[in-house]
Amino acid sequence: MTDILRHPRLQLRFLYLAVFTGGMTTLAVELSAARLLGNVYGTSNMVWANIIGLILIYLTIGYFIGGKLADRFPYPRTFYQVVAWAAFFSGLVPLFARPILRAAATAVQDFNAAGTVGSFISVLVLFAVPITLLGCISPFAIRLALADVDRAGNVSGRMYAISTLGSIIGNFAPVLILIPQVGTARTFLIFAGLLLAVGLGGLALHDRRAALKLAWMPLVLLVLAILLLRGPLRPPPSGMTQLYEDESPYNLVQVVEDEQGYRYLLLNEGQGIHSQWHPTEIYYARTWGMFLAGPYFNAPPYSPDRMERIAIIGLAAGTIARQHDAIYPGLPMDGIEIDPGIVEAGRQTMGMTMPNLNVIIEDGRYALGRLEHDYTMIGIDAYRVPYVPWHLTTVEFFQEVRDHLTDDGVVIINVGHTRTDRRLIEAMGRTLLDVFPTVHTIDVPGSYNTILVVTRQPTESGNLQANLDALPADVHPVLREALQTAVSGLRPTVISDLRFTDDHAPVEAIVDSMVIEFVLEGGINELTD
Asked: pTM of this prediction?
């Protein structure tokens, strides 16, 4: 039996397995790191840039150290010890990060900038050791497999091909399968466990005693996981009760309830309220009500019975749909939402069960292109600074939107701004005027949200007041209140010289600079929505 275990071909195959599993774990850790941090800090470009940049630095150091270590200690025993320790420290990351992230979540909720930044840096530092050790694996393996200098190119090419193949699996498996099924922390532990099994198994091939000395590693990870992976990752805001939590392919989805029975949909860092629900109320004096006002920019008198069908891109948990269903009973609605986890939360906890709501779980632009209906209103509530999908901001996209409107159809878009920076709104206005004749601007009171209403026919802002005055006496009171709020929030439409196209849409650059400026000016302390 010992002779079989020491067979050179078996040892080489185990070396390939180690490289494959190391490459898979490296990518899985990187993607899981983004989700781990995204649950508290969001998934903006700045978060991704920090994660990818530091991981590349750690890998660079690992490649250098791995090559040096392999030349100094070119022994399989040393190699598999490195693999085992890389796996062990990878498994520790989510366990030690969890209490730090809980503290960070509280800091984010309390707008404690120092605590937020400090926690972010602390978590990133946790990745230094495991990623550096993972970076050691490929150069060390090449050194062990290289028996003939004349075959150096073939050996190194094969090793990197095997590592990359593992990386492909590590890229897709966490996002598409594991994180939605078992969560981010357990995804870390699964990949760490696989790599640890390979490391200890390879070590046992060459030195059973050395492998037994490290047999405590999986036990320690198991005990720590049982002790530390309890409770929600992000605690509910003060005074609220958590009703729902799930990690979807895109977000950490939470639904919380306050003492008055209002429920709120929170995503990732929890700084935005993406939907709201109450068993007896449908109007909340927030941005969603402004979507009711859009069609009434058409020439007066605009009758409510002219509403035929609407589409909502960025359905979330259905607040806009619920309001429209209450005012226009039975109105056909197509709601597009990319995240199935949000849809499930809406159905389970926020009353998104209207029979006249057709829910489509797809990307907004792709789904719109496949719809066959024309719409009286198309609402776009898919922008949330710093998460603005650029492909939903371009001239070409709005040309597609226009083609799905009735002759008196309108487009209503929720766009963010800061106290001093309205560049995103102004660029959106310029872009929309390339496609539509008129853009109206409404600032939502008490928020950093602006609603842009775009009409297919040329219209005037005064039409809104005229239609408000002409509303029938028996109209739903929420519709009247929404139009009154919209009239009070009307602002002149200001545009810039920048237009967004599929070829050039620097949305991320604008949004990132807005966020940085907002934080530096202390605006985070003023957030109320």
From this structure: 0.80
